[in-house]
């Protein structure tokens, strides 16, 4: 037995070209050969220092990525031999190549093209576009064109780097890539996909306020491309449309995302095929969006795209704003940020389709929406401290006859409730079938009227009630003095909440005093334990505030995070207290007026109810 083992080992050692013996890329080349990515002739040379052709490099890269070899009709290139055409056309179909015409498959591949294609194959094209301005450690960096510079930055600055060849002071962008360098690059690509990769860039937005953008990992499988043709609040309407399209023999899926049932057609391996289906459906009158997705976002290790803004104490102000300065209505976070001159901003709390906040909001000391029982909130004190707690909110009307409890603020009332409407709600109260309303201006009752749709005075409010709770309202008369008193009690009893001037509520709380919080706060398993885009705020031990966003629902860009993963991410960044805010398609980070992340809605940045702004101190 030992003789056979020794003989096998000797055969394995001798089964590679002699010109690889002792070469710096020997192990990498043999690893690719062992996996069938490249072929070695043990009786012939490998020629590691010879130029590598464009077609051969793409054959290696496409094989390493595991792309399906499907011919394109019409073919994107006119000069491909049959042995290379499937590989080059697969690279084109999956976005590694984006030019057409002549490919020149036998010409040497330049170092800059090989790096660009590898970065695209890895799913880091967006990072390359972001990195074009970064300094490079090469004396000839100015010779790298803008179209390739960002990809070179990703290849050099990622950890571990994609470029792992003998160090040199020059990149030599137009030099031919050698066969050893090409094998090393493809080997590094495989290492990044299978072993992990991390790319990070930091930049200040003002002194001491630092933005960090990071991407970790790469997609280990291929996405599926579909065409979305509708999004409905009603499951019945979504299923009706799905049945209509399914009856024609097309595969149809209904995905529930952020409270909407999204009807999606097809399961194409490439974007081009999905775009062809989209064009056919659009001709039939359907609204169409081409999207990529996965059958399972939750079991893969990556990729994850994360960005955060770290704000040390005293370096900036935090402020909550409403879209249009009113409760009803929605606007994009970027619009609210630019309007206020914010240096950074994130989206805020949950909201209804009409923009009504689903949770507490206080703006500049004024409550405009009450917190939901059991949900956590973020508060900002006069001195700029950031607090996180669950709040008990109480409001009452004080009259000469006594006090009357108020159930809610600037929202539609339910049966047997009294709700307070301020000018932040709009010009008039909502329409109701029955009830009584008291119009107050300057602290004095102006009118007591049966029925809804009262005008809200700019210097007052309206009390709207129905059922037994509204009986005391009918006893009021014009000229009576009326006051409203609002108080909050934090679950922790922290007295600093009495100094709070800004509030935005979300949930669940994910960290408390440095420990992961397991409270559900009424959220479903799908919300907590499935991956979604996330927005969160953390507070470090030194009082620094961390505004965090995690992109998701974009297979090659970022998968999203579960709530436990989000908690660990914030803990890793040094947060001891942290709160999850509205996420999904709402997740947005704006820096200096520009949206930094990739919002997941097919229509782009989502209009939201409120936002948390970072302003100069």
Mean pLDDT: 95
Tell me the major beta sheet. Answer: 8 strands, antiparallel
Span between N and C termini?
77 Å
Share of helix among residues? Answer: 10-25%
The side-by-side strand order for the widest beta sheet comes to: 1-2-7-26-25-27-23-24
Strand content: 25-35%
SS summary, helix count: 14
Number of structural domains? 4
Please supply descriptive tags for the structure shown above.
4 domains; disordered N terminus; elongated; Alpha-Beta Plaits; alpha+beta; seven-stranded antiparallel sheet; 31 strands; 617 residues; eight-stranded antiparallel sheet
Describe it.
The chain is an alpha+beta fold. The protein folds into 4 domains: 16-195, no CATH class; 224-293, Sporulation related repeat (Alpha-Beta Plaits); 304-388 and 499-615, no CATH class; 401-480, no CATH class. Helix content is 23%, strand content 28%. The chain contains 14 helices and 31 strands. An 8-stranded antiparallel β-sheet has the order 1-2-7-26-25-27-23-24, with helices on one face. Strands 11, 12, 13, 14, 15, 21 and 22 form a 7-stranded antiparallel β-sheet that branches. A hairpin with a 2-residue loop joins strand 23 (509-512) and strand 24. The longest helix is centred in the first third of the chain and has 17 residues, at 179-195. It is elongated, with a radius of gyration of 30 Å. It starts with a helix and ends with a strand. The relative contact order is 0.11.
């Amino acid at each position: 037995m030992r003789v056979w083992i020794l003989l096998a080992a000797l055969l394995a050692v001798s089964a590679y070209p002699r010109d690889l013996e002792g070469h710096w890329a020997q192990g990498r080349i043999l690893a690719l050969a062992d996996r069938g990515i490249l072929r070695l002739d043990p009786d012939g040379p490998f020629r590691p220092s010879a130029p590598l052709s464009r077609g051969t490099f793409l054959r290696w890269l496409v094989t390493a990525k595991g792309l399906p070899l499907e011919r394109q009709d019409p073919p994107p290139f006119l000069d491909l031999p049959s042995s290379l055409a499937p590989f080059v056309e697969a690279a084109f179909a999956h976005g590694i190549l984006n030019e057409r015409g002549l490919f020149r498959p036998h010409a040497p591949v330049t170092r800059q093209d090989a790096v660009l294609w590898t970065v695209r194959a890895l799913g880091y094209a967006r990072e390359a576009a972001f990195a074009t301005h970064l300094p490079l450690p090469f004396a000839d960096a100015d010779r790298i064109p803008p179209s390739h510079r960002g990809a070179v930055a990703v290849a050099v600055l990622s950890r571990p780097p994609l470029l792992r060849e003998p160090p040199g002071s020059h990149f030599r962008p137009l030099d031919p890539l050698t066969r050893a360098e090409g094998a090393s690059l493809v080997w590094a690509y495989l290492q990044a996909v299978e072993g992990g990769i991390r790319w990070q860039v930091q930049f200040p937005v003002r002194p001491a306020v630092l933005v960090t953008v990071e991407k970790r990992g790469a997609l280990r499988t291929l996405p599926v491309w579909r065409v979305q043709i509708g999004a409905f609040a009603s499951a019945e309407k979504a299923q009706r449309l799905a049945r209509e399209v399914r009856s024609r023999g097309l595969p149809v899926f209904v995905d529930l995302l952020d409270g909407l049932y999204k009807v999606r057609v097809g399961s194409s391996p490439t974007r081009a095929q999905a775009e062809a289906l989209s064009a056919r459906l659009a001709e039939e009158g359907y609204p169409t969006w081409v999207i990529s997705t996965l059958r399972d976002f939750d079991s893969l290790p990556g990729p994850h795209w994360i960005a955060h803004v770290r704000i040390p104490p005293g370096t900036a102000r935090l402020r909550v704003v409403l879209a249009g300065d009113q409760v009803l209505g929605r606007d994009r976070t970027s619009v609210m940020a630019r309007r206020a001159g914010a240096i950074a901003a994130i989206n805020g709390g949950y909201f209804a389709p009409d923009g009504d906040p689903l949770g507490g909001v206080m703006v500049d000391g004024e409550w405009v929406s009450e917190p939901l029982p059991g949900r956590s909130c973020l508060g900002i004190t006069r001195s700029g401290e950031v607090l996180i707690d669950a709040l008990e909110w109480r409001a009452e009307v004080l009259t000469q006859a006594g006090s009357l409890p108020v159930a809610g603020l600037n929202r539609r009332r339910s049966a047997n409730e009294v709700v307070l409407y301020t000018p932040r709600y709009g010009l008039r109260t909502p329409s109701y079938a029955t009830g009584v309303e008291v119009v107050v201006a300057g602290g004095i009752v102006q009118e007591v009227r049966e029925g809804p749709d009262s005008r809200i005075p700019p210097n007052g409010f309206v009390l709207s009630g129905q059922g037994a709770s509204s009986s005391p309202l009918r006893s009021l008369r014009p000229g009576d003095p009326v006051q409203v008193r609002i108080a909050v009690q934090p679950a922790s009893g922290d007295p600093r909440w009495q100094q709070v001037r800004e509030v935005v509520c979300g949930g669940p709380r994910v960290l408390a005093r440095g420990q992961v919080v397991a409270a559900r706060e009424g959220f479903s398993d799908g919300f907590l334990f499935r991956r979604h885009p996330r927005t969160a705020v953390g507070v470090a031990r030194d009082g620094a505030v961390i505004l965090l966003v995690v992109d998701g629902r974009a297979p090659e860009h970022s998968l999203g995070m579960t709530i436990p993963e989000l908690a660990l991410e914030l803990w890793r960044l040094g947060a001891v207290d942290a709160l999850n805010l509205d996420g999904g398609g709402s997740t947005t980070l704006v820096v200096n007026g520009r949206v930094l992340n990739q919002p997941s809605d097919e229509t782009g940045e989502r209009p939201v109810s409120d936002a948390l702004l970072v302003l100069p101190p």
